[in-house]
UniProtKB/TrEMBL annotation:
Pfam families assigned: FAD_binding_2 (PF00890), Succ_DH_flav_C (PF02910)
E.C. no: 1.4.3.16
GO function terms (MF aspect): L-aspartate oxidase activity
Source organism phylogeny: Bacteria, Pseudomonadati, Pseudomonadota, Gammaproteobacteria, Oceanospirillales
Protein name per UniProt: L-aspartate oxidase
Amino acid sequence: MTHGNHDVLIIGGGVAGLVLALEIADRRRVTLLRPASDDLGASRWAQGGIAAVLSPSDDFDAHIADTLVAGDGLCDEAAVRFTVENGPAAIEWLLSLGVPFTPDSSPDAGYPYHLTREGGHGARRIIHAADATGLAVMETLQAKVAAHPAIQVLDDLTAIGLIDDIAGRCRGARCLDSQGRLHELLASDTVLATGGASGLYRHTTSPHPASGEGMLMGAELGAELRNLEFQQFHPTCLYDPQGSPFLISEAVRGEGGRLLNVQGERFMPALDSRAELAPRDIVARAIDAEMQRTGSDHVLLDIRHLGGDAIRHHFPTIHAHCADRGLDILREPIPVVPAAHYSCGGLATDLAGATTVPGLYAIGEVACTGLHGANRMASNSLLECLVFARSCAVALTHRNNPDDSAELRSLSAGSQRADPQALDEIRQRMRRVMSANVAIVRRDAGLTEAAEALDELQQALAPLRDVCAPSTELAGLWQALRLAQITVASARARRESRGLHFNPDCPDHAQGIPQPSRMYLADLN
């Protein structure tokens, strides 16, 4: 079934997609594809806040310098400056919508709202809504989107791929409804806001992480993928083998939390002068090494010394959640473990979110803008969502009408029903392979083993694609598996250790000017 006449089609309803919808809807008609599962996506679980230069004692150059250091030589400095300099206006826009950021009523406050500090930042510049910033921002944006007459929200369709024409232009998306019926949504411009690829791993900081589906959708049309080897593992996810994932915000360390091994010994000061506030790649590797040294499956994050009043004030969500799991963080340290958290790589875009495919844009974690380089600094992610969604809206407002006369490419598919159990088994095997060989520390032998194992899984899945009818499970698994293969190829190609990519077989930085990795789906074929 073909549904034409869509103007701007946005796929994904996290912060990036919602911001773009609101910013463009007064000038163009918007169709927002937002399945119910988006309520459980990464945006809602962003606890810490949004980094921006807001205090009179802070400045753009300091934020830029901190970001460049965290990115370990691979940031695009123009993208960093663009993001940082547009940050304050983006925050003011959120405030105008009524986002309930935490105020600062102290007499010496230089800014009306409380600013905290997180790893890699040399100043307090993280504006937040207690310890549930993502939730506060999402609820505000969703209410505004629901009330806007020019935004059509479709919550009963899931995109399984993009539509292109013989001229190479993106023309919309193919979707399935809850009954498995295929719908083609043709659009003048299509924007991916589908999130990252943490779901390629067994343990993540989000209960329902994306697995790079949107990245692969763009790659299937020929879009460039960049820096996929830089997968960030958040240092502190609550260690609870029996419970669902729960992130312990970096702001906990920003307010003075200390990392201890299971023997009660603090280990970060001996490794880095910034101690617990070193960039995430350094802290995650340190925790991983300490766990291996002590033979433990977690470390401890201690905030008891902050006092009950401060803990309840700054971290009410974390305090309540841990209490529900039987953990009193006022009296005992929090068991934590690193978990897959954020994809620094993705679809390569310019400063307006345009990919290398005409008519296709990407914003948020699905995109690689050059901001993060080899390692994302804390709370620059929501900042990137805001700034690039707003710049994408400006570009879409001023773009010329495209030529949509070229013939569309067709989709062929079988009619059998894929076995859900067989698909789930392949997905779990893929996650085990990625977690064992392509995680915080990678080695040449493990990467080779991963490539071979993923090739075997692809060969097992490929026949099902040929004979089975389209389904969200089959399409999503195929996209995740192909992206995992490209991720491994990117990791094998980088013959150095940099940022989030640490390989003891090539532990040093490569000589010369570091370059981003550029990959295309065709590189696997």
